[in-house]
Amino acid sequence: MFSRISSFLLRLFGLVPPLVLTAIPATGLDTLELALGDLQGNGWRMTDVQVRLAWQDREEALLLVAAGRAELPPPIGRIGGIELTCPRARITPEAVDCPEGRARIESPYLDRPEFSIAFRYEPPSGKAFLTFAKLAAAGGLLAGRADVAADGWQVRVEASDLRAERAIRLLDEGGVWDASVEAEGLVSGTGRFAGHGAALSAVELDARVRAFSFSAPASGAAGENLGAEVAVRGRRSGTAWTLDGSALLRQGDLLVRDPIVITPSAGPIRLEAAMHWYPDEGLLQVARLAFTHPQALEAEGRLTLSLAQGAQMRSADFQLVGGQLPELYQTYLQPLTFGTAFDSLDTAGQVQGALQYAPDGAVKLRLRLQEAQLADRKGRFALHHVNGDFGWNSDGSPVRSHLGWASGALYRLPLGPAQLDLEARGRAARLLRPAEFMVLDGKLLVETFRLEDAATPQMKWSFDAVLSPLSMEAFTEAMDWPIMAGKLSGVIPAVSYADERLTVDGVLLVRVFDGVVTVRDLVLERPFGVAPALAADIDLKNLDLDALTRTFAFGKIEGRLEGAIANLQMVDWAPVAFDAWFATPPDDRSRHRISQKAVDNLTSLGGGIGGALSRSYLRFFEDFSYDRIGLSCTLRDSVCVMDGLAPAKDGYYIVKGGGLPRINVIGYVRRVNWDELVERLQRVTQGSAAVAE
Amino acid sequence: MNMLRNTSLIPLLLFLTACVTINIYFPAAAAEKAADRIIEDVWGRQPGTGQEKPAAPENKTAPQSRAHSQTFVARVLDFLIPAAHAQADISISSPAIQKITASMQARHSRLVPFYQSGAIGLTADGLITVRDANAAPLKDRNTVRQLVAEENNDRNALYREIARANGHPEWEADIRKTFARRWIDKAAGGWWYQDQGGSWKQK
């Protein structure tokens, strides 16, 4: 393009010598008129060219040049009538000078056909220049200057407030624009080009855009309401170019690559690059690339692109010098996690890292997390003071990673410090050695952990673990359940997760209240999704009621208890169905005592009047001996259908007395609203004072 | 004699048991009703949609799923034991379904402008997708993406839970298909949907 323009300019000036030669001997003539007909050169053509010279005095003349039509090199293309008026032209053998000319070009590209023009041509040296100004095109103004001399040429163009949408239409018609790229907004800038003959040797571009929006579907990039500055300095040596570029985004939203949108909320975002371009080899070497997104990310690197068939990465090496959460997460990571459990985190901390892209396409990624906080906004999990080193190689070769945190939480359950040593291998990862998770005052020892098909819809993971004793008091308090005494421990066999379903294969064994609770067929649907649904069958064996009720304000009961919660179904961690029964084991030989308060509470659960006992003479007894206790509840549709040990008159036995004084607790209510029952239980277990007389 | 009479009952019993098995086909009409109730909960009553129209398409689609299972024997048994069919219903009252429906309902008002602008559309498999990201301003695009991901998580959970709540996890695909059709039927004018061939159409 430049070579064609420069050749056109040279040929245009080349028209002048014959004019001068014809004009000079004709001194004394007032007017000279020439009809030159059609003129053409390499890439340009003018028809019906006429020149008219009218001398005002010995030195100055009125020069008029007109052409009917012209076809010029792109991007100008075909234009209509041309008129050039130089009221004070000086024509001497040394120079043709038009200091204050006016031009008029009929062209659909120009908003106004007139603009000012000036030129000077010195035939002896071949030096020439042409300037134009106030050229109204694409809604803005253009000005420029072209200098041609034996040792080279320079072109400088200034544009102010061009309308991008109109400018690209012109460029599109000129065939130098990818028509799929759309843009609108204001563009201003300066371009300087220098060269020799047909060769361009230096470029300086400074452009500013305002209220600028664009979309380039092929690259996936788009921008809205951008305020930005772009500068490029380029110099050719031999066939290679050295280029320095910088871009500064001051305002607006820029879609870099779907789905990452950057916006300069904390100061301008800057990209700088020092490049070597080898057009013959189709190679672009970026020796230094620096990207600064204030309060989010600072990265440097170098890369080599092959431009032979589109831009292809040959190799790259990036250092993430300073990555800052939460901005880094919100802008660069969160959009990649939508739909997963990690898509709404509150984050803080620092991230550093490195990314290498080898010529064979292999990617090596290293990330270091420093003092990070990761907390789910929906309250499902949180990790505090997270430190770690992550590695990943795309070729599937193993990389060790380390991750640790000081504290955290899983739903309501607080987690203590933990250190994990992991090995990542392609899309899989595993725990290198057993990891201990402090849970309250206990310990969860995870012996194995495997992750497969990470970051795919088929992702699955599995682990098995052992829970060493933690106090039930702490556990129940954390879960906001009624406080219970005792210890919780157990074996957690193969736990696996796939297709949004967590399955515990085998039996989960929990030692609590001196007895054993076994959980079978535990399935948790959508553990981190909407309305997590849990299903399980629970058996209770040989529980110590004394331990169970000791800190449980329900009232002290001594003896053993067995039972089951079969077909348990919980949605959003609230039970919605089960078949539960609890009873004194038939062969239980332990001491059976029940306190007055427990009798009252059991009575009120069974639909009797709480406190009835304390109003009778029985109030003098603190506790009573009993033979058996039994209660069942079948929960369906928010209704608990209750039953007891055995049928009684109009009801069922909850407690069958033994010894003297003998008391029986009989339940009369068969159907209780579950929420009311829970409320009642909470009342009797929390506010013992309210129950006592 | 007594013995003989009893044994002669066995085949009949087997037959009856068998017929019950045969008749557990997917209750398409009931599923459509259930879908419509949930859609109405989530979207509310939308003026100018298919809500007021007679549910003509239901009759058209119901026999389709019957056709496979309804052999001659089954049809005879249908006649003999009409109760088995009359009771075939789709329950949507499980707490999980109610939770999921409430979650979708709470999200819906935020999705509406993007349905209207064509940024998102209804897919043929009962989900939604970003149809034309350019129809949403850049600053909203990731919001749209997140809403779509959450909505689809909910919808997938909904179809699975309805199948499970009705004791037939294997119905999940049929329930999904039913919903896919009903979402599209009930979509407001101007909204975009994907037809069976995968091409986009506007209501």
Estimate what percentage of residues of chain B fall within beta strands.
5-15%
Coarse structural class of chain B: mainly alpha
Instruction: Report the β-strand fraction of chain A as a percent range.
Output: over 45%
Task: Give me the Rg of chain A, rounded.
Answer: 43 Å
Order of helices and strands of chain B: HHHHHHEEHHEE
Strand order of the largest sheet of chain B: 2-1-3-4
Largest sheet of chain A: 45 strands, antiparallel
Termini separation of chain A comes to: 101 Å
The whole-number mean of residue pLDDT values of chain B reads 76
- Work out the helicity level of chain A: 10-25%
The coarse silhouette of chain B is globular
- Which stretches of chain A are low in confidence, meaning pLDDT under 50 for 5 or more residues running? 687-693
What characterizes the major β-sheet of chain B? 4 strands, mixed
The multimeric state of the shown protein is: heterodimer
Question: Which features does this protein show?
Answer:
A: 693 residues; mainly beta; 45-stranded antiparallel sheet; 9 helices; 45 strands; 11% helix; 60% strand; B: mainly alpha; four-stranded mixed sheet; 8 helices; 65% helix; disordered N terminus
Structure, explained:
The complex is a heterodimer of chains A (693) and B (203). Among the domains of chain A are: 1-168; 531-685, no CATH class. Chain A is built from 9 helices and 45 strands. Chain A starts with a helix and ends with a helix. Chain B has 203 residues and is mostly helical. Helix content of chain B is 65%, strand content 6%. Chain B is built from 8 helices and 4 strands. Chain B has helices at residues 2-22, 28-43, 56-69, 72-80, 82-86, 95-117, 138-165, 172-186; strands at residues 120-122, 128-130, 192-194, 200-202. The termini of chain B are far apart.
